[in-house]
Design a protein that fits this description.
Elements: H1 2-22, H2 27-53, E1 58-59, E2 66-67
Antiparallel strand pairs: 1-2
Helix pairs in contact: 1-2
Bound molecules: zinc ion (ZN).
């Protein structure tokens, strides 16, 4: 979800700019917000890649054996998946 990631980073960047406008002495808090936004974005991206990397195997409806998600027939009993 690149759009959600970008929205989160934009929100944090806006908050950082607003904070700078309200009180320039809090520039370090703004920097912290931006760093946090980038970290959250990396974390979200890591979580989403984790989900795609660990795609659950397709279980055969006939014998219940785990099969490759791309397979069309069961490798154990040849039933259609
Ligand atoms: Zn099977």
């Amino acid at each position: 979800m690149p759009t959600r990631d970008t929205t989160i980073v934009l929100l944090f960047a806006l908050a950082a700019v607003a904070l700078l406008l309200v009180n320039p002495a809090l520039w370090f808090l703004s920097a912290l917000l931006v760093l946090f936004a980038l970290g959250a974005r990396l974390l979200l991206r890591g979580l989403s890649t984790d989900q795609t990397d660990h795609a659950p195997p397709a279980n055969c409806p006939d014998c219940g054996a785990p099969n490759d998600p791309d397979a069309t027939t069961c490798q154990y009993c040849d039933a259609a998946l």
